[in-house]
Design goal:
By secondary structure, this protein is α+β, with helices and mostly antiparallel strands. The chain is 41% helix and 19% strand. The chain binds fe (ii) ion (FE2).
């Protein structure tokens, strides 16, 4: 029992540790996944058609709205009035095709031709102009661009100032997280669309723009399979521990009741055997002593637990048939007549009959019925021999005879240890089962059963 509960405690502890280890592993794995910085490049068809980019986890798809207006860009004040530049409104849709949040992104837009940035929405721009030594300047919101506050190369047309981008120049778009823009994070299967208005020469192809996208994911821990493995183990663990608690409480309750029941049975039987022993004043306490010796012998044969308890009770009741023997015969100090001796002998059969209604202890009557049988077949009541006699009755026979020799009787004193040993030795295989006799001899010789003291 103790060993079992120790094993159970170890299993509980081990499974708890395992659950937390898996949980920790899922957190580490998730954090590692979220820490990875991703980069993807888009240009030409991949950037503008969108088809090729749909298979990407996160993709940028550019689309230019139809040009609606144009202006005359007179770079050298030559009086040019013909419209030579047109405005493009280009949306750069950053699409998240995954089940995870895109926590952070920025992209670098590189120009392959002259372009003039008129407007952009939401995010801020870090502009890199490379010609004539690199100029780097950040414009938080191009819609509120004030040229005097910046060092950037610009160009004005019709009172509108635009940022001039040459081939090779680039900008880094950092999205806005403001409540209005909410470009970040990008929810699973959602997209955000920053856009630009820029002027480019009429007829110039716009497909030469290049976008390089940097992003990181924020995967929720609940999307991590290991997380659920640990949760399931924890749930099972919790159910098991609750169950264990309830079962333990029930077992404790049952054990207490079982112990009390055992006490009641024990005391009832001992009280009853007390009546029997009281009828025979010369053998006071005989039943209990015989039961104790029998139990001690049985232990040597490997009996334990409930089987041993049963042996004790069967032995305790071995003389219960004496309840039907008249007191004058049982307590007669002198020699018994043949008839009287027959009455005494009948206590075995009477005992068997009395105990036949005692169903809760298996074969409880066989001790009473057969304890006066002899191994050589010359006993009573049925003259059974050897292994025909139930083993328990053979053990009681040795214990019973030993107690008779080891107690004072009215007609004689108890025997000496040597005498008892000799007596058992000489009846080995005659009255007694030789194996049981040997065990008894061993117990007496080693002092485990006291004799003649
Ligand atoms: Fe007896």
């Amino acid at each position: 029992m103790k060993k079992n509960s120790k094993t159970a405690a170890l299993i509980f502890l081990a499974s708890l540790v395992a659950a937390f280890a898996i949980l920790l592993a899922s957190i580490i794995k998730n954090n590692a996944y979220n820490a990875v910085e991703h980069r993807a490049s888009f240009s030409r068809e991949r950037l503008f058609s969108g088809d090729a980019a749909r298979s990407e986890e996160v993709a940028v798809i550019a689309s230019a709205r139809n040009s609606t207006w144009s202006k005359a860009f007179d770079f050298f004040n030559e009086g040019i009035t013909e419209h030579n530049y047109q405005a493009y409104t280009i949306d750069f849709t950053v699409a998240n095709h995954t089940g995870d949040e895109v926590e952070d992104f920025s992209f670098r837009l590189t120009f392959d031709q002259d372009a003039y940035l008129a407007s952009a929405w939401n995010g801020s721009l870090e502009i890199h102009q490379l010609s004539g030594g690199e100029i780097v300047d950040t414009v938080p919101d191009l819609r509120e661009f004030v040229p005097e506050n910046h060092i950037l190369a610009t160009f004005s047309v019709d009172g509108e100032t635009m940022v001039a981008m040459k081939p090779g120049d680039y900008l880094i778009y950092n999205p806005s997280t403001s409540m209005n823009a909410m470009e970040m994070p990008i929810e699973p299967m959602e997209a955000t669309t920053p856009g630009f208005i820029m002027y480019m020469a009429i007829g110039a192809p716009i497909e030469g723009l290049e976008v390089e996208l940097d992003y990181t994911f924020h995967r929720a821990l609940t999307r991590e399979p290991l997380f659920w493995v640990s949760m399931i183990i924890l749930a099972v663990w919790l159910v098991a521990i609750i169950n264990f608690g309830i079962t333990s409480a029930q077992i404790r309750k049952y054990n207490i009741r079982h112990e009390r029941d055992n006490e009641i049975i024990n005391e009832s039987i001992e009280t009853f055997t007390g009546f029997i022993d009281a009828k025979d004043p010369y053998t006071n306490g005989h039943s209990k002593r015989v039961a104790t010796y029998t139990k001690r012998i049985a232990k040597e044969f490997g009996y334990d637990g409930e089987a041993l308890d049963r042996i004790y009770y069967v032995a305790l009741l071995h003389d219960c048939g004496k309840i039907g023997v008249p007191d004058n015969i049982l307590g007669k100090p002198g020699r018994l007549t043949n008839e009287e001796f027959q009455v005494i002998k009948s206590h075995t059969v009477r005992g068997g009959e009395i105990l036949s209604s005692f169903k809760s202890l298996n074969n409880v009557g066989e001790g009473a019925l057969y304890h006066h049988e002899r191994y050589d077949g010359n006993g009573y009541p049925s003259g059974k021999a050897g292994e025909e006699i139930p083993f328990i009755a053979r053990m009681i026979c040795v214990a019973d005879s030993f107690d008779a020799m080891n107690t004072n009787r009215v007609y004689r004193d108890k025997r000496t240890k040597e005498h008892i040993l000799e007596e058992i030795e000489s009846n080995r295989g005659r009255q007694f089962d030789p194996q049981i006799a040997d065990v008894m001899l061993g117990l007496i010789r080693s002092g485990q059963i006291k004799a003649g003291e």
